[in-house]
Design goal:
- The protein is of the alpha/beta class.
- The protein has one domain: Ribokinase (UDP-N-acetylmuramoyl-L-alanine:D-glutamate ligase), CATH 3.40.1190.20.
- It has eleven helices and ten strands.
- α1 crosses α8 and α8 runs antiparallel to α9.
């Protein structure tokens, strides 16, 4: 087991002098029904602030003006335009799907399209409602092709219960690992979020996160983490994909602990705003 605490050595490399936005990943985020557009915006904000080179948000068309007003750096498209959506998936290095997506028949069609379009050259992050849709597919014996070069699942304990069939009391490392190996390919990473989150991957020791605080128990915190994960796994500087996911988990909780020193609640939007300067601080410590 690998323990992650406040003394963790951040693995992200400094940006080289010669670079362009393509070096830092093109991320497509498929998220946000009209009722839950905020989830999409929080994921897009954290992804952008974490250094993704280009962020595109595929969402309900009513969310796009708000997205452009609050995050002018991102691109937006109507996720009901299947032709545009498929082209956007094709161009992406990483696709994040799920925050605020809903569990309707249309949401399932989006998720199915994503699974079918993703190739072995791309990366995929499945979060929130998309995890529940995936659990339905598993229970019904439907095909759920996870063919991406790397797939990261980010369930909280209840979502993991639906995916794994393990009750909260049964979610021990040995049980989680057994289910992981039974139902997911070795290219999958499973981050089970809780007060002490754990990361599971086929060939690596369990990563046990010992930082974070109760003030982070608030809507939107998982959406924010998924955006950071998507940005980091899109970076080309990581030698091992596990380091990218671990960095994302650490950064998220590290900033949360900073905010909790002076604030009762850690708002996800405030956490995202601290990402660039915190990364700068962590990189400066590596000199």
């Amino acid at each position: 087991m690998k323990m992650i605490d406040k003394n963790y050595m951040f693995q992200l490399a400094k940006r080289p002098d010669r670079c362009h936005k393509g070096d830092f990943g093109r991320v497509l985020i498929i998220a946000g029904s009209f009722e839950m557009g905020g989830a999409a915006l929080m994921a897009a904000k954290s992804c952008l602030y974490s250094g993704a080179g280009l962020v595109t948000l595929a969402t309900d068309k009513e969310n796009i003006p708000v997205a452009h007003a609050s995050l002018p750096e991102i691109m937006g498209l109507d996720y009901q335009d299947s032709g545009l959506l498929k082209k956007a998936i094709e161009k992406a290095d990483t696709v994040l799907i799920g925050p605020g997506l809903g569990r309707t028949a249309f949401a399932k069609s989006l998720f199915t399209c994503c699974l079918q379009q993703i190739t072995q050259k791309q990366k995929l992050v499945i979060d929130a409602d998309a995890l529940t849709l995936l659990s339905f597919m598993i229970k019904r014996g439907e095909d759920y092709p996870l063919r991406a070069a790397m797939t990261v699942l980010t369930p909280h304990a209840k979502e993991w219960e639906r995916l794994s069939g393990l009750s909260l009391s049964e979610q021990l490392d040995k049980n989680n690992q057994a289910v992981y190996k039974e139902i997911f390919p070795s290219t999958t990473y499973v981050l089970v979020k809780s007060h002490e989150s754990r990361l599971y991957h086929d060939s690596d020791p369990v990563v046990h996160v010992k930082i974070g605080n109760p003030g982070m128990a608030i809507a939107g915190m998982g959406d924010t983490l998924s955006g950071i994960v998507a940005a980091f796994i899109s970076q080309k500087s990581y030698l091992h994909p596990t380091d990218a996911v671990t960095d994302a988990i650490f950064l998220h909780s590290y900033i949360g602990d900073i905010l909790a020193q002076s604030q009762y609640i850690v708002l996800p939007s405030r956490l995202s705003e601290l990402i660039p300067e915190t990364i700068h601080h962590l990189l400066s410590q590596k000199i």
